[in-house]
Design brief:
Layout lengths: L1 H17 L4 H20 L4 H13 L1 H11 L2 H4 L5 H43 L4 E2 L9 H13 L11 H4 L1 H10 L3 E5 L2 E5 L3 H9 L5 E3 L4 H6 L8 H11 L5 H5 L2 H21 L6 E4 H18 L3 H21 L14 H29 L8 H14 L17 H32 L1 H15 L9 H5 L2 H13 L6 E5 L3 E3 L2 E3 L4 E4 L1 H5 L2 H4 L42 H16 L2 E5 L7 E4 L1 E4 L4 E6 L2
Helix pairs in contact: 1-6, 2-3, 2-6, 3-4, 14-15, 14-25, 15-16, 15-19, 16-17, 17-18, 17-19, 19-22, 19-25, 20-22
Length: 622
């Protein structure tokens, strides 16, 4: 209400003046109004100085006096015209404008921080949903921090224990225990509803009616990566279509030699460590950094045609960026927080700029080669650029011979996809292989069964390049990988946001509610997977994913390590092929067991990682 009243006041003063002022001089006065208003709004403690400064800037104090002297009657100003009379004339409406601006900002802040959250909270509670009470601004951030500290301060889990949810997702575990499986938590001023029913999770991820959008985290997401996984609508569809050809199975098959070469280098390095051990004793190796190095080497070669050494700088920067992101994760709901010049924010922006500079140079070199007519490399970047150029040239046609792509991707878009290649291609597979080695070290009987299968399919030591047909016959290895993905899901949760009112599971959700899909918790749910949900039992996948859950039969699957629906992870086949080759070559060369120094402490740093490393004892296979 204050803003319209303010403008009415300004206009009414202007109307009084306009009856006595010629058009040209009236324009000068309006300029004076406009500029003085800006000075008063943005320099309130120094209004008089600001007005005098503005008066001189617009057309000088003398000119202003002349305008007022010749245009405004003395009776209107109450005394002989002067620059100070101008201030007296303008001050009331401009003060009202300043008050209106402040009131408008305060109203917006109150709506964001209190009124809207309370409306959403009432709407959810009226339908029987319970959860934590809303705390202005911070939401559940203090509770989440406290629960995380408590979880990390507890003793590590005993070896062989896979009940990791209380430690890895303490806030979700607390909310579900206190308020039920479908409960409400708060991400800043946004209500976040936990959805655990597999059928509802599939509905959300399928998004058939367009009710949901991916819940982004703004500038933080862009600093980490801003590829296809973060886009929405037509931009997501265009990027997905351009990237898809690079992940076709026939293209991935041609990458198998590069996978095997990287794994062979790691196996040779481990053999050297074992040989150097005293008296044939097992050699202790922390396989977590080793797997990061392996997958970093793989993604460098198959995505960019370079070696690990050439890509090491990007890996180091990405790893630092992930750890910095965790420091600000509970503050990003505050508007403008990522724009503040804090030490962490400045460092994250410098890292992002350096990574993007390296990638921009790589992309420019490749694009120059393509324009010169040189052959495209079979790596992901080459395939991506080739597909992108087809979109620009109109060769990428949709049904009916029309180019449905709407053009290709910009260089910035391609940089975003390359950052996603590095982030997802390296981190996801490295945590999968790390947890697989840890779990097989805990369960020697399954390690022996998987090794027996590898040796039966590939023969002595699996030192040659494993072919795709052989990998497809590794049934036990596949079961082991699926069970590890279930127990140690790399990405513990997915988030979606309702952008219009909709109904899900009998609950009517207003627009602006975040839905949290706690994949790790769902994969440990005894109602879904049976009383042995926290146990390592790969045989549950013997008849495939659809029959793995306790319900069995033809029930829809409740297994979501790579998401579900149209936004299923585009690189899941890539990740599983890489993991199969790596595990097959390790099993064909070594026997391993947990080291006494290993501490079983899964903890999410974006992905679910071993907090204190993953130390195992290696022995060369006889």
């Amino acid at each position: 209400m204050l803003m319209p009243l303010c403008f009415y006041s300004v206009l009414s003063h202007g109307a009084k003046i306009s009856r006595h002022v010629p058009v040209g001089r009236l324009h000068a006065l309006l300029c004076l109004y406009k500029t003085t208003a800006m000075a008063l709004v943005f320099d309130l403690p120094f209004r008089r100085t600001a007005v005098q400064r503005v008066t001189s800037l617009e057309f000088s104090s003398v000119a202003a006096s002349q305008v007022m002297a010749t245009s405004v009657p003395v009776g209107l100003l109450g005394e002989a015209p002067s620059p100070w009379n101008v201030q007296q004339l303008l001050l009331p409406p401009l003060c009202a404008a300043a008050v209106a601006v402040v009131a408008w900002c305060a109203a917006r802040a109150a709506e964001w921080a209190w009124l809207r959250p309370r409306r959403l909270e009432r709407a959810l509670r009226a339908q029987g949903l319970r959860g934590t009470a809303y705390r202005p601004l911070s939401g559940d951030a203090p509770l989440s921090d406290r629960l995380a500290r408590e979880a990390r301060s507890r003793p590590p889990l005993p070896p062989g224990c896979h009940a990791v949810v209380p430690r890895a997702m303490p806030l979700v575990h607390h909310a579900m225990n206190e308020h039920g499986k479908t409960s409400v938590t708060w991400f800043g001023p946004t209500p976040r509803v936990i959805v655990t029913e597999p059928e509802l999770v599939r509905q959300v991820l399928s998004n058939k009616f367009g009710h949901f959008e991916k819940a982004g985290f703004g500038q933080l997401t862009r600093l980490l990566h801003h590829g296809v996984s973060t886009h929405q609508g037509s931009k997501w569809a265009k990027h997905r279509r351009i990237i898809n050809p690079a992940f076709h199975l026939d293209k991935l098959k041609r990458m198998l030699p590069a996978f095997a070469s990287c794994c062979a280098d790691m196996v040779s390095r481990w053999e050297g460590l074992v040989a150097a051990a005293d008296d044939g004793e097992p050699c202790e190796v922390d396989v977590w950094p080793e797997m990061q190095r392996l997958t970093g080497d793989v993604i460098s070669r198959v995505a960019f045609g370079s070696s690990y050494l050439e890509g090491r700088r990007i890996f180091e920067l990405q790893e630092e960026q992930v750890h910095l992101a965790m420091l600000v994760a509970n503050k990003i709901h505050i508007p403008g927080y990522m724009m503040l010049p804090t030490r962490v924010n400045r460092r994250m922006k410098r890292i992002a700029a350096e990574i993007e500079g390296i990638l921009r140079g790589m992309i420019a070199t490749r694009e120059s080669s393509l324009r010169a007519g040189k052959a495209t490399s079979d790596d992901l970047l080459g395939l991506l650029l080739e597909s992108n150029m087809e979109q620009f040239s109109g060769e990428g046609e949709g049904e009916g011979g029309t180019n449905s792509g709407g053009g290709g991707m910009s260089t910035d878009d391609i940089i975003g996809e390359c950052k996603l290649f590095y982030f997802a291609g390296m981190e996801t597979t490295s945590v999968l292989l790390t947890w697989t080695m840890v779990v097989l070290a805990m369960h020697q009987e399954w390690q022996d069964r998987a090794r027996e299968e590898v040796l039966r399919v590939f023969g002595g030591g699996c030192r040659s390049v494993p072919d795709y047909d052989g990998l497809s016959r590794l049934k036990i290895v596949t079961m082991v990988l699926y069970e590890v993905l279930r127990l140690y899901t790399p990405l513990p949760a997915l988030h979606r946001r309702t952008y219009k009112p909709m109904e899900l599971g009998g609950v009517r959700y207003p627009a602006g509610v975040m839905l949290m899909l706690p994949l790790l918790s769902i994969h440990h749910d005894k109602d879904v997977w049976g009383p042995d949900a926290d146990e390592f039992r790969p045989e549950r996948f013997a008849e495939g994913i659809a029959r793995a859950a306790a319900s069995g039969g033809d029930a829809p699957p409740a297994f979501f390590p790579f998401g579900w629906g149209p936004r299923t992870c585009i690189g899941q086949t890539f990740a599983l092929l890489e993991a199969k080759i790596g595990l097959a070559m390790i099993l064909g060369s070594f026997v391993f067991e947990l080291s006494p120094s290993y501490s079983h402490a899964p903890f999410p740093v974006v992905l679910l990682q071993p907090e204190h490393g993953a130390q195992v004892k290696l022995r060369k296979l006889p």
